[in-house]
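re: ur question from yesterday

yeah so i grabbed the chain u mentioned. its 135 aa long if i counted rite. heres the sequnce exactly as i have it in my notes:
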Amino acid sequence: MKFILDNWMLISLAMVSGGLLLWPVLQGAATAGLSPAGAVLLVNREKAVVVDVSEPGEFAAGHLGSAKNIPLGELENKLVATVKNKTLPLILVCQTGARSGRAVAIAKKLGYEQAQSLGGGLTAWKGANLPIEKA
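ran it thru and got these structure tokens back, copy pasting raw so excuse formatting
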């Protein structure tokens, strides 16, 4: 115990350094999902359906070209009526990828086995210089 009390600054410095070393790993986990290029391939080759789970105001400010807007809170009730073919790939999108990650679990529960989240969301899409539409 005396060692910890005598060297509390060094221990704190070691813990902060370890946290900073883990930061890129944690960031990578947050952006896990389908890449923008992978999403383009799915849409073009396999006729994937894009569903934006952002709120209507966010959707109007910018979204992927063929995206349909179903806010996350309404996804469970409206997805089956909006996307009838459960065999097609389903790409779920939001601003950063956090909500769409939760939406994947809902979609898979509803029977959409090929549901995927766009990693990094609309931010990653814009970062890849891909086009967006505004309502």
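noticed a couple things. The chain has a mean pLDDT of 90. also The radius of gyration is 20 Å.
anyway ttyl
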